[in-house]
From TrEMBL:
Entry-linked InterPro entries: CRR_secretory_protein, GNK2, GNK2_sf
Cellular compartments annotated: Secreted
Main location: secreted
Pfam families referenced in this protein's UniProt entry, alphabetically: Stress-antifung
Source taxon at top rank: Eukaryota
The protein, known as: Gnk2-homologous domain-containing protein
Family: Belongs to the cysteine-rich repeat secretory protein family.
Family annotation (PROSITE patterns): GNK2 (PS51473)
PANTHER family: CYSTEINE-RICH REPEAT SECRETORY PROTEIN 38, CYSTEINE-RICH REPEAT SECRETORY PROTEIN 38-RELATED
Species whose genome carries this gene: Ziziphus jujuba var. spinosa
Gene Ontology CC terms: extracellular region
Domain Gnk2-homologous residue range list: 25-127, 133-239
Signal peptide: 1-23
Keywords from the UniProt entry: Glycoprotein, Repeat, Secreted, Signal
């Protein structure tokens, strides 16, 4: 089955089968700043320092922000690991993301990359605490469910409950499951925000992501909306491990 790609209002739809993306390959990336820096420049040196800071700061708790440099050479960045990911795997993912961004967005002053296990973002602009509505994409399982009329409301029910739960926790992260009543079949879900957001902004971000699920994934067996500040996901198989 073929997949089509389309970009509308910075929203990218990508077709995917089950575990098509693994932990070592990026899900997607954006080089979102049109401005560039030069090789061996102060900005580049500060970016390297930022990546090193995040590599140390993020793994113990799964999240961290940092800023390095001053004035036009200042770099701001954050990294977030999925809530169930171990410190070791978190560090590996952040380090991989740092290397990939250097290759994917060479000399760009703003970029973001996502993996299954983490996201990494940096910019010359100060963005902490603000909802990122620009850098966003969706992944979907191209296989259809048998009865979308009853399945779609279940997806909304589960993700809406996880939006509330995640925004009320310190980690801004929640997972859950919902019985579908069909041969003990279960629907699994996940919701997570970057921890620079307030609880209110986290819920706003998640609720917008949930509202976009029908646009990409209506009647599909799995899907996710992934952004620079939050993400939601549902599947008919367990999403996370036991951490």
């Amino acid at each position: 089955m073929s997949c089509s790609k389309s970009i509308s209002l910075a929203f990218l739809f990508i077709c995917a089968f089950f575990h098509a993306a693994n932990a070592t390959n990026p899900l997607y990336h954006f080089c979102f700043n049109k401005q560039n820096y030069t090789a061996n420049s102060p900005f580049g040196a500060n970016l390297n320092t930022l990546f090193n800071h995040l590599s140390v700061k993020v793994p113990p708790s799964g999240f961290g922000i940092a800023s390095t440099g001053q004035y036009q050479n200042k770099v701001n960045g954050l990294a977030l690991c999925r809530g169930d990911v171990s410190s070791k795997d978190c560090k590996t993912c952040v380090n991989d993301a740092s290397k990939q961004l250097r290759n994917l967005c060479p000399y760009n002053k703003g970029a973001i990359v996502w993996y299954d296990n983490c996201l990494l973002k940096y910019s010359d602009a100060y963005f902490f605490g603000e909802i990122d509505n620009q850098n966003k994409f969706a992944l979907l399982n191209v296989q259809d469910v048998d009865n979308p009329e009853t399945f779609n409301p279940k997806v909304k029910e589960l993700l809406s409950s996880l939006s509330y739960k995640a925004s009320a926790t310190a980690k801004l992260y929640a997972t859950g499951e919902l019985e579908l009543g069909k041969e003990s079949e279960k629907l699994y879900g996940l919701a997570q925000c970057t921890r620079d957001l307030s609880s209110d902004n986290c819920k706003k971000c998640l609720d917008v992501a949930i509202s976009e699920i029908p646009n990409c994934c209506s009647g599909k067996r799995g899907g996710r909306v992934v952004g620079g500040s939050c993400n939601v996901r549902y599947e008919l198989y367990p999403i996370v491990g036991t951490a």
